[in-house]
Design the sequence.
């Protein structure tokens, strides 16, 4: 007699698929990396290229104890939200895994992922999560294309000369993508001008396998609101022959280039820009960008959002959520070039106090405060140290804005905020999972009350999602 199944009704649980086996899957959601998610029995299966609503045939490529990864074979029944991807290399590049989904469907599934992360990781349910905010239409006539004002493109040797593009998913295989449709048209033009100037200047692309060659990346940024443009050429050695000739070639091809700079990155790592300051080869020492009420100076190595139009939506909402507390001192705990703190002062706050760990960004923030005539103080150092030094315990400042990297806030900063809580706390996050973790820590014991979360789509076509979480001091 056959042994009864786990349910006790005599029906055996379906066996898990084996590596190499083809399975049929209904895709129900999107993973944090952009893969479609389906199930084969109890096994979760991630399928790049599949989107929610698809029924697909996929081959199991990797088995893990709790999940599997599969290669898409065919779409047997396409999702009603599918569309023809507006890029011929989207699958090989891997940078835009949601491109087969309509923009509305992308935002719907991103919001669902945020709600799921808040509940699963943070134990947060019932809080208001608004519909995803998007930027207005850009140069391509829609918000989901031509929005990237910054691109860092690796360089490699091609059959007719240097090529630029992006690495394929999970590899260092370069996919030529100089015509990337999510990149701003002016940024594409600048990249092409620098790429075409490398060979005449005698600068060869760096080869990871042999360690020969010089040029690792071309980093480009444009000021969408000003029309200014900047390129940074990243090499492995400090003074490779040909840099002066490169400046001549680039400026001859692109007379309106605002800044051409050089960064040295000798490390055998994935780091793009070097650790030291960039050296200007031609033009000014940076570009200007206009965002909301501000004109901002951006130097070659400073961080600023890659999607200025959506950043304006994000910053405007973050500042608005400061509310009446924004009339006093606003702490911009991850200040960058000072955009959020300075916008708050322009909107009526008395002054901004900013903390930042990148020296070039601090210099830009101070310059931006002076350029816009706004009252602000920016200090170099980690927020978890500088905040507790200024507010060791008791009542904190009027308002704090957090905008940490993907890893979220250090525990020491969260504890500092709980020890000296501001009246209003706005957390700008670029990762739903770490946002959920940090919100759980902040609200534990009733120190802060989470009022709402506002998702903002800064990276259409990708799985990334920004969110503004609004908290108020509870006691």
Sequence:
């Amino acid at each position: 007699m056959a042994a009864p199944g786990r349910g006790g009704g005599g029906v055996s649980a379906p066996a898990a698929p084996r590596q190499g086996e083809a399975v049929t899957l209904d895709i129900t959601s999107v993973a944090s990396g952009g893969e479609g998610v389906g199930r084969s029995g109890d096994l979760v299966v991630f399928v790049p290229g599949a989107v929610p609503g698809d029924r697909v045939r996929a081959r199991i490529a990797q088995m893990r104890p709790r999940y599997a990864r599969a290669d898409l074979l065919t779409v047997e029944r396409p999702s009603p939200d599918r569309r023809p991807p507006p890029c011929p290399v989207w699958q090989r590049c891997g940078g835009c895994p949601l491109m087969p989904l309509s923009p509305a469907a992308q935002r719907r599934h991103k919001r669902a992922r945020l709600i799921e992360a808040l509940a699963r990781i943070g134990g947060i349910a019932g809080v208001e999560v608004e519909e995803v905010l998007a930027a207005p239409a850009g140069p391509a006539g829609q918000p989901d294309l031509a929005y990237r004002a910054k691109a860092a493109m690796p360089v490699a040797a091609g059959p007719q000369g240097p090529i630029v593009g992006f690495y394929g998913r999970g590899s260092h295989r370069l996919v030529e993508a100089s015509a990337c449709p999510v990149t701003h048209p002016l940024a594409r033009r600048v990249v092409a001008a620098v790429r075409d100037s490398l060979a005449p200047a005698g600068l060869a692309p760096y080869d990871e396998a042999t360690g020969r060659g010089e040029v690792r990346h071309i980093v480009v940024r444009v000021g969408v609101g000003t029309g200014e443009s900047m390129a940074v050429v990243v090499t492995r050695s400090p003074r490779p022959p040909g840099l002066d000739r490169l400046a001549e070639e680039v400026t001859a091809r692109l007379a309106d280039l605002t800044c051409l700079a050089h960064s040295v990155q000798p490390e055998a790592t994935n780091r793009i820009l070097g650790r030291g300051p960039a050296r200007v080869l031609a033009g000014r020492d940076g570009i200007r960008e206009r965002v909301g009420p501000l004109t901002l100076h951006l130097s070659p190595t400073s961080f600023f959002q890659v999607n200025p139009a959506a950043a304006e939506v994000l910053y405007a909402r973050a500042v608005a959520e400061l509310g009446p507390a924004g009339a006093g001192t606003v702490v911009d705990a991850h200040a960058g070039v000072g955009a959020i703190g300075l916008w708050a002062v322009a909107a009526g706050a008395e002054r901004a106090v900013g903390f930042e760990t990148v020296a070039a960004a601090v210099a830009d923030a101070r310059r931006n405060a002076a350029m816009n005539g706004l009252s602000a103080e920016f200090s170099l150092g980690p927020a978890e140290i500088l905040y507790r030094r200024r507010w060791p315990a008791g009542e904190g400042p009027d308002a704090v804005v957090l905008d940490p990297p993907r890893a979220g806030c250090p525990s020491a900063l969260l504890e500092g905020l709980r020890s000296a809580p501001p009246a209003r706390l706005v957390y700008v996050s670029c990762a739903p999972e770490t946002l959920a973790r940090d919100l759980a820590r902040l609200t534990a014991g009733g120190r802060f009350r989470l009022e709402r979360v506002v998702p903002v789509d800064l990276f259409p076509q990708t799985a990334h999602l920004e969110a503004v979480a609004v908290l108020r001091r509870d006691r």
User: Anything to note?
Assistant: The chain has three domains: 22-82, 105-137+307-473, 150-291. The two ends are 65 Å apart (CA to CA). The domain at 105-137+307-473 is CATH 3.40.50.150 (Rossmann fold).
